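Notes to self after the Tuesday call (sharing in case useful).
The group wants a holo model before anyone commits to mutagenesis around the pocket. I volunteered. Ligand is 6-phosphogluconic acid. Logging inputs and output together so the record is complete.
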Amino acid sequence: MTIQILPTLTELSHLTAELIVQRATASIAAHGTFTLALSGGSTPRLLYHLLATDYRDSIAWEQVHIYWSDERCVPPNSDDSCYKLAKDLLLDHVPIPSEQIYRMEGEADPTETAQRYESVLQARVGVEPQLDLILLGMGGDGHTASLFPNTTALNAQTRWVVANHVEKVPPWRLTMTFRTLNNARTVVILAAGADKLVRYHEAQLPASMLPVARVQPTHGELIWMLAETTE
Ligand code: 6PG
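Result:
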């Protein structure tokens, strides 16, 4: 496990963009593609903007395949949509072929969509999908993706993607399971602010019950990218 703690989210976003450039270049050199799963929330907003601007020409976007670690069950044009966040800040500004962007259909039936997305992952990446890099955030309650405390998705053992009912609004979510997260080559957890630093330290405790503590890549690398402030 690697930990980076920087003073500001701005510095952290640049360092994370550089990391993604480096892993994309290595993945494309090694096997011709870079499979990247994005997350929602506010923390990655600057990162997505930087990938579409300062670092745009450093990635061979034509070889990049985009997935999501989770999605809210809302239409794709909703301001709550993780897809819309990435589309507005990144995907509309880089030359990724549209057929290489695999959106979770938040507007459809959650259970059916989760099953469909799992089939897409297995068809496109492999029956035991190993993504090159999964970008995650962490909520104030220690959730990651849409793996919230005390929800059924935490217990998924064989599934790769599930629907999950949560106490937050909107209540239905789609999420990769720990099995998928922990099968990745690289997992990056991006978090900023004093409260998130406290939660990070709690997650390192042996008996931590925080969902994010269960992100432990089996063969891959876990990189915590932390900022002391959200500046
Ligand atoms: C989502 C994300 C979620 C997010 C955390 C942190 O769907 O919102 O996937 O897991 O990463 O809630 O969100 P912030 O970056 O807004 O603190």
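Two things stood out.
The chain has a mean pLDDT of 97.
The first helix runs from residue 9 to 31.
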